[in-house]
Amino acid sequence: MADHEHAKIIKKGVKAWNEWRKRNMGVKPDLSGIKLKGAELAYANFTITDLSGADLAGSNLRQAYMTHANLSGARLRGSTLSRADMRASNLAEADLSGSDLFEAIFARAVLYRTDLSGCDLRDSIFIGSFLEEVDLSDSDLTGADFTRARAGGLKTEGTKGSLP
Q: What pTM was estimated for this model as a whole?
């Protein structure tokens, strides 16, 4: 369950959140299970933040910083995550179906049973990532970089572009 104080700060908006993060660099924010459906979170600093089980469906997370974040079981269906930085994040069992992930960075991320169906993944980066039982069906992977990615059991029906 999300830390009450952390939840209060993020609900004030990205500017307040990012300023708090600058002043509290040693804190690992806990926003697990928070409901921020449809929120305006572009450029938010969610580095090392626990967002497991969070409902962020339909949110704008364009260019959000989510490195080393825990997004396991998070609901991000239909969200905008173009150019979001999710390096070394845990996206196990997260639902990102129908999301805009153009030029998103998933380098060294863990994607296990992650739903990426119907996503725009053009020019996204999966260098060194772990992808197991990921649903990529009907997604556009044109220009995506899977260098050194470990992949298995992928669902790829109707996928456009290069596959790992």
A: 0.96
